Amino acid sequence: MTRKLVAAAAALTTALTVPALAQDRGGVLNFARYDGSTLIDPIYADRNPDIWMVGSLFDTLLRPSDDGNSVVPGLAETYNVSEDGTTVTLTLRDGIKFSDGTPLTGEDVVFSLDRARNADLSPWAGLLGTLDTVANNGNEITLTLSAPDPTILSMLATFTTGIVSKAAFEAAEGATDQEKSAAIFAAKSAGVGTGPFYLCGFEQGTSMDFCANEHYWRSGSDGKPLPYLDGVHFEIIPDDATRILKLQAGEMDAAEFIPFSRVAELEADPNIDMNLFPSTRIIYSPINTRPTRADGSPNPLADERVRQALNYATNKQALIGLVLQGAGKPMTSPLMAAATQLATSTDPLYGYDLDKAKALIAEAGLEPGTEITFTTLAGSADDSTIFAALQQMWAPLGIELKVEQVDNATRGAKNRSGEFDIHTYGWVNDVNDPSQVTGWLGYFPTAKAVGTGWENEKFNSLFEASATEMDSGARAGQYAEMQSIYAEAAPLLFMYETPFAVALSKKVSGYVQTPLGNNLFEEASISR
Amino acid sequence: MATIQYILKRLLLMAVTFFLVMIIIFLLVRLLPGDPAIAIAGDRASDADLAAIRERLGLNQPLVVQFWQFLSNTVQGDLGRSILMRAPVIDVIASRLPTTLFLTVYAVALSVLIAGPLAFVAALNRGRWPDAVIRTVFQVGLSMPVFYIGLILLTFLAAQLRWFPVGGYGDSFSERLYHLFLPSVAVALYTSAIIMRNLRSAIVEVVDAEYVEFARAKGLSAWQILGRHVLRNALISTVTLLGLSIGNLMSGTLVTETVFAVPGVGRLMLEAIFARDYPLIQGLTLTFAVLVSIVFLMTDLIQSALDPRMRLT
Question: Is residue B23 within 8 Å of A105, Cβ to Cβ?
């Protein structure tokens, strides 16, 4: 299997041949964030507010395609996977420079990938687990793998493989890698990445500034280098209402994480462009499938039929109406959002059917008045609504739903130790490949199938086989089978997918939040 | 001389208080359910990652060892490193504290400016309509939560009328006065309501007192009576109340700073608690304790200066 892609960049060619349209250039975009970054480094970024910013500062060898289902050339002009799937060769584009003007070389790539796969440094090293050696001959990069890896190209388009300048990194103050990384972050100067922007201002927990990288390699629709903006100014405003007010008052040009209850109101606002970007985010509830509960009592949810019944008795469309004011859709794959590669569509996945649910409950012999505890996040209005709705929806099954309110850290600990019946959770893909979410939700050896304790040998072996399956058709088949097994066993209450709600001023165009959540400003512009 | 002795004694007492505060907060933070390692690494982290984080942060040490380290480091002025902010706790607090102090002082000043004159108007018109109006308005202010008042102010005065910025805190002194006006008002409404009520009844009480009757009989003018007798005496209990409410004000900043997007230590405290950032929670609590103790000490000193009958013991 040989995939050879020359830098066709069709979009770019079209843009160059068509007479350039008037394109707004310059200006600073004011962006209101719900939470701040603490460190933007391809390998130390571990929270979404960090991860989603990495791409603006650090380019990767490959880039996700616009539809998110494949990759296209990035810093590498061409790429090629060998017949046996164990060697990847890439050629860097000529003339790429870091934001301080120094040229990008093959050594920078080797340095960056070696750093990214170093388990002593990076929490994400596992994503590059098959990478054996990285070498370069000038601009030619050769990766050898210990086993065929169908995800390797997606990984080369993932934030953690962002390319950093070896020279800038080594020159930074500090003895350890962590210290150097922090020093680079604190220095707020150009030089360390080849992304469209560089970090030029930072106040912990308050604000952050990106300045345009004048050496950026991609061109805009007017034939001149991107980005269109001079910079982006971020302000951290955790309160939803305040973020929206700042946008409405014109102090900000964009506000992210708009609560869904406010979407309709903002859609009606003539000065605001309310965006619902497709995402890979799913909201689901892990169900404890262990034979006994943590206190030793028998667990009624260990019976597959009970879990199926709960799914049938849950009116997802009603939940979406209540919690998201309609801005979402029921999950159609049991393991991932519809926007993820290899997602199969089972529509409806456990459509609302109370009779079927009652029949399953009777078959399982569940005692009327059985108590089940639903663990929710204290202070979360969404969780309270979900609880109240489920309590009603499940009452006809003879289930008495009790609530237990905890905070995020406690919920994580309970999930890990199995001290729960059902709780709420969510997921957004970090990688442009379904292996990550599938490993998290279903594969027992890594995280006990998202803490549910569900273990299925067939599923596990399919997952293991798919990790080295280079034939995309065969791999899709394995994923389809895993999804069918998972749907049947129902270790989750399958709920819904939600978009990323970002409200922009009408003056802003070209801003994108990808299905993985990454904030893309490189083609954003603003008319003043 | 007595004053200096008194201050020394109070400082010694404060040291004891801080020691107790440290023990309590150290234990409380660790009694919180939830694991800081998970809070840092996220739910997806492997057991090995979590173990490594606990090792790095010393969370796997016995509590006594952890407390001894906390204590000895604190005495040496080292509050540790914030897990969330990846920087020394002292630096993180130092960068945020001035904003909160500015907000608190501003709110106190506004409270006094609002409550003082109105208390006089109400007291001197006792039982008539100005008194009723003022008392009713403040009663409403007292019963509304700060975040709600804040949102109302923001929606009308900032977002719609655009008289004020919606958030932020400005760079120069005048910009800060402008940016922090609405948050200060939101906080001040509550405090001024308390002060107004207290000051009004104090004035009423003094006005009725025999020595004022006597002064009036002596032929002193109304202003002389007000300045020499009424104000001075009414102020004593108000100063106490103001001192006490500063402690309240500081805890109020948790809400105000979040609603008004003001990056001070109040908002920082919330972030630290959610992230189970032990060193930062400890450092902030200690900072609050120190500030409140200083305010209480100053209150007592001012009180004794106003009223020579109060002995410093």
Answer: no
